């Protein structure tokens, strides 16, 4: 806790809750974690490590720095990410940082110096406490600043501390060209920006010269091309940008359809053989791929949707209604577009501006790319996030509490540091610098909410879980504003406060009233609500006396890279990904572990030691809790995750956003994931309920809706599935060398076979697959094109080569893993209901053979499922049928292919020799699939595919973090800082 001391000008009789008055201005700091006379660095054990990071796709080394220094309790992953991302200086030079101490000191000492220079501390001793407490909190992963702080503070380069920017554009060519330049400079610096294009006149209006205007959609093309060229910070990932258009803009329908039409183009080009994956060589040929699009709707429009009435589109220059549209039809068009390609998202204008503290200085019209920062145009916000698990008190016997007092003290410490940063920060444009210095927008938030809820025995989608989340959020934002009022008494309120005093205080009352009305549920959230209630009363009292130092205090950001830095299990407001995690080990190697939150949850729920151990062991083997020994079915929901057979429903995510939004100054970065089977009506309901529940912004992503978003790392998986298992280190042994010579296993003269007619991309063909009577596939014959043609000859030769391997023991799954996903023409649509698309004839052939001849477990591991299995997965969460569902005769009768016993009338050419299968007759085991992070591990264990791109830096599957994707292997993100 800190004390506020205020000078006579503020009145010596006023006292804050956290301290008394004094004749000297400045904050009296109190210790939270540290001990007088002992530096935080001296209380931990330090160790030296080597950081070597590789690309899993080709084994190349991406980054290497040896002998770096970290505390022994920091995970390998956290140390790797901090070393590669945040240490400054050229690797291999004396200027290169090599210790976490150097990194923290570089940042913390800069903050202290600026605080002393600008009068934040009552004495040098208070500055000492500030420095030590900030160092301790960063060292022990209690919180983290956003990435730009670690990149820039204390270096010779511009000290940019903000990750979130909002720009503005007016209806003039000069302003539009300034937009391109300003956005480009922000991208160059590694950050992202958003803006609203609604001031630009529509294509249905006239220019002053009498010609037709181009409209905002046309200018989006130029900005998109610029972003695609610059990318973000010179990296290989796309730039982060948000484009917003008001729902009453006459070009709104064109805006809604921009990405839908481009998605159709992507599909056509992909079917023609072009590489249209995210980051593919040909994806740059399509437009509008570098931005998130959102429609800004108002209450009038949403009520017109609800009532089924018309809604007017207004001219930008005159404000007159130039067209009336069916509101429900337009809303449906938005939902259809989002269903098809995940854009546009939706922002609720009246809700946003109802909570706006500075309306006298302008409306909130846009957001940053991830939609958590919403404030004035030409402004920025610097972020910091607290690790909620650090505040859970647990005696190990199931008795838990949230440490309200320590949490409040840390929030005060962090908000103080964040405000100090604005005193020395640099900004990408002068306009952004002026606005930010005048309004001092901050964005404190948190990570690890999903882990905290599970550890406390709360289901993410439950009243108790939402109550605890809401209480913590209310306490956090209330404490931040209380500290902001205390700072105002010391160094003055923000410049724009006098003009906005009444609306700012009105918003504080709204927060306090929402806190009073919130539902209390159990022994964990009730004390937090009580503390929050007292805090909001302090906010109202102190704010009225001193004003506020900051126009905004809190947001919920994705916490991508910094979440990994803090060793958080979950990011932002997200639930846990899965119950089993991938953990890197010191010295190399990895292991999979059941989340530490699971045993804590079991204790909280009343399970004894042996019961908990049995449940944890079951989860380690199965990856889920279904039918875990001794686990009550009513407790299953506590362990629901983002992936798996018991995944959280889309509305569960929406309800959690609604539970915390009333106490967030800004908004929440979160995408509501929906299953592939979701309908347009489901999207409409999500968008409509978001408005009803008071959320500020929403975006949805329906699984597999985008072509340019790889569904899974199947290429990588196939490669890893055929690699040899790694050999563990140990004493060298001499093995007896036995030479095996291949022996051919001939097919009998009469053998069962399947003849399949197929069409791939318009090319017709026939495949006959003959098998041993009791031992699997033995030969394949392919008929394509006219006899004597080059294609027919190559297919004949290919058939013989494949048959050679099959008869000499090469497992079919080896062929399948090697030849699926090969791309060449002809490719495209097929007439096979199980395999609707094929990237080549070879891709189709081996997928069809896998479905016909491989056991379910083998092909499921390769990601190959029939239409019936995919349907079953959407309905039940499992591809595999239960025992009473299997009907072999029925499946055979319903198969769309001709099944026959084929007796060749003429001898077939005998293929030459290869390797003999084991003498036991057992099939050769397939190589184990290899995981490189928790997402890939969850895919393997749960038999699912996470709909996420591959990391450009290290090749592993990324996972969702808010509105972006995060690589937990190297810390890279898909577009957000």
Automatic annotation (TrEMBL):
Enzyme Commission code(s) on record: 1.17.4.1
Catalytic activity line of the entry: a 2'-deoxyribonucleoside 5'-diphosphate + [thioredoxin]-disulfide + H2O = a ribonucleoside 5'-diphosphate + [thioredoxin]-dithiol
Domain Ribonucleotide reductase large subunit C-terminal: start-end pairs: 162-701
Sequence ranges of Low complexity compositional bias: 1-24
UniProt KW keywords: Cobalamin, Cobalt, Disulfide bond, DNA synthesis, Nucleotide-binding, Oxidoreductase
Keyword Cell cycle part of the UniProt annotation: no
Family statement drawn from the similarity comment of this UniProt entry: Belongs to the ribonucleoside diphosphate reductase class-2 family.
Protein name: Vitamin B12-dependent ribonucleotide reductase
Organism classification: Bacteria, Bacillati, Actinomycetota, Actinomycetes, Kitasatosporales
């Amino acid at each position: 806790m800190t004390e506020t001391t205020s000078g006579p000008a503020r009145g010596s009789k006023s006292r804050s809750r956290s301290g008394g008055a004094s004749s000297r201005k400045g904050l009296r700091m109190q210790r939270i974690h540290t001990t007088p006379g002992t530096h935080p660095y001296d209380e931990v054990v330090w160790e030296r490590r080597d950081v070597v990071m590789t690309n899993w796709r080709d084994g190349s080394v991406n980054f290497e720095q040896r002998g770096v220094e970290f505390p022994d309790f920091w995970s390998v992953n956290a140390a790797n990410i901090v070393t590669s991302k945040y240490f400054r200086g050229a690797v291999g030079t004396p200027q290169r940082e090599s210790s976490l101490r150097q990194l923290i000191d570089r940042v913390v000492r800069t903050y202290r110096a600026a605080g002393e220079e600008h009068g934040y501390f009552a004495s040098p001793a208070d500055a000492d406490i500030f420095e030590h407490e900030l160092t301790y909190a960063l060292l022990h992963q209690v919180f983290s600043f956003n990435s730009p702080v670690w990149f820039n503070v204390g270096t010779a380069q511009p000290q940019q501390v903000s990750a979130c920017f909002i720009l503005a554009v007016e209806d003039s060519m000069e302003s539009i060209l300034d937009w391109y330049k300003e956005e480009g400079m922000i991208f160059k610096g590694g950050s992202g920006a958003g803006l609203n294009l609604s001031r630009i006149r529509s294509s249905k209006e006239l220019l002053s010269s009498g010609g037709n205007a181009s409209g905002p959609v046309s200018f989006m093309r130029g900005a998109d091309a610029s972003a695609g060229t610059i990318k973000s910070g010179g990296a290989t990932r796309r730039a982060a940008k948000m484009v917003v258009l008001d729902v009453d803009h006459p070009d709104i329908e064109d805006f809604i359809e921009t990405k839908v039409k481009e998605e159709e183009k992507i599909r056509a080009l992909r079917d023609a053989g072009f590489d249209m994956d995210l980051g593919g060589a040909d994806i740059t040929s399509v437009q509008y791929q570098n931005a998130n699009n959102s429609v800004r709707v108002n209450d009038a429009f949403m009520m017109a949707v609800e009532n089924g009435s018309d809604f007017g589109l207004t001219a930008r220059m005159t404000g007159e209604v130039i067209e009336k549209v069916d509101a429900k039809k337009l809303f449906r068009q938005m939902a259809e577009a989002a269903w098809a390609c995940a854009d546009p998202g939706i922002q609720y204008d009246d809700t946003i501006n109802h909570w706006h503290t500075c309306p006298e200085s302008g409306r909130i019209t846009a957001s940053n790319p991830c939609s958590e920062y919403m404030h004035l145009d030409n402004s920025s916000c610097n972020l910091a996030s607290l690790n909620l698990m650090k505040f859970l008190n647990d005696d190990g016997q199931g008795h838990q509490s949230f440490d309200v007092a320590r949490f409040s003290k840390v929030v005060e410490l962090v908000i103080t540091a964040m405000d100090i940063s604005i005193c020395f920060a640099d900004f990408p444009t002068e306009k952004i610098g002026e606005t930010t210095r005048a309004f001092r927008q901050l964005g404190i938030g948190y990570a690890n909410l999903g882990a905290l809820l599970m550890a406390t025995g709360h289901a993410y989608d439950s009243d108790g879980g939402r109550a605890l989340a809401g209480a913590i959020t209310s306490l956090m934002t209330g404490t931040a504003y209380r500290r902001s009022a205390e700072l105002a008494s010391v160094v003055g309120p923000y410049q724009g406060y006098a003009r906005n005093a009444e609306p700012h205080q009105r918003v504080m009352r709204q927060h306090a009233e929402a806190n009073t009305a919130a539902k209390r549920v159990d022994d964990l959230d009730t004390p937090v609500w009580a503390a929050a209630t007292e805090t909001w009363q302090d906010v109202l009292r102190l704010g009225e006396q001193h004003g506020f130092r900051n126009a905004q205090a809190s947001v919920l950001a994705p916490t991508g890279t910094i979440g990994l830095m803090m060793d958080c299990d979950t990011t932002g407001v997200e639930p846990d990904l899965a119950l089993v995690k991938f953990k890197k080990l010191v010295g190399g190697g990895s292991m999979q572990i059941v989340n530490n939150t699971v045993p804590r949850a079991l204790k909280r729920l009343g399970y004894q030691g042996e019961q908990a151990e049995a449940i944890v062991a079951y989860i380690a083997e199965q990856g889920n809790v279904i039918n875990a020994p001794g686990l009550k079915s009513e407790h299953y929901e506590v362990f629901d995750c983002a992936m798996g057979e018991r995944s959280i429903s889309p509305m569960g995510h929406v309800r959690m956003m609604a539970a915390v939004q009333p106490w967030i100054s800004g908004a929440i970065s979160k995408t509501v994931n929906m299953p592939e089977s979701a309908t347009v009506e489901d999207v409409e309901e999500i968008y409509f309920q978001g408005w009803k529940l008071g959320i500020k912004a929403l975006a949805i992503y329906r699984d597999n809706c985008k072509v340019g978003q790889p569904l899974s790392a199947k290429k990588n998986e196939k490669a890893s599935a055929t690699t040899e298992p790694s050999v563990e280190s140990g004493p060298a042994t001499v093995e007896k060398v036995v030479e095996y010579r291949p022996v051919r296993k001939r097919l009998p003269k009469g053998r069962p076979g399947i003849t399949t007619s197929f069409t791939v991309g318009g090319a017709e063909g026939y495949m006959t697959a003959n098998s041993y009577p009791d031992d699997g596939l033995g030969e394949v014959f392919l008929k394509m094109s006219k006899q004597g043609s080059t294609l027919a000859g190559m297919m004949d030769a290919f058939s013989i080569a494949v048959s050679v391997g099959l008869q000499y023991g090469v497992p079919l799954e080896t062929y399948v893993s090697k030849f699926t996903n090969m791309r060449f023409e002809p490719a495209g649509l097929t007439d096979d209901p199980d395999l609707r698309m094929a990237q080549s004839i070879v891709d189709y052939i081996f997928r069809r053979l896998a479905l016909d001849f491989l056991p379910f477990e083998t092909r499921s591991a390769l990601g190959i499922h029939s239409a019936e299995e995919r349907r079953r997965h959407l309905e039940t969460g499992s591809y595999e049928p239960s025992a009473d569902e299997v009907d072999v005769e029925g499946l055979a009768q319903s198969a769309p292919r001709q099944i026959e016993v084929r007796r060749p009338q003429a001898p077939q050419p005998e293929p030459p020799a290869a390797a003999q299968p084991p003498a036991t007759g057992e099939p050769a085991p397939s190589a184990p699939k290899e995981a490189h992070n928790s997402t890939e591990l969850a895919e393997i264990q749960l038999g699912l595919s996470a709909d996420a791109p591959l990391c450009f830096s290290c090749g592993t599957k990324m996972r969702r973090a808010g509105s972006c994707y995060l690589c937990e292997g190297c810390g890279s993100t898909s577009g957000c800082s």
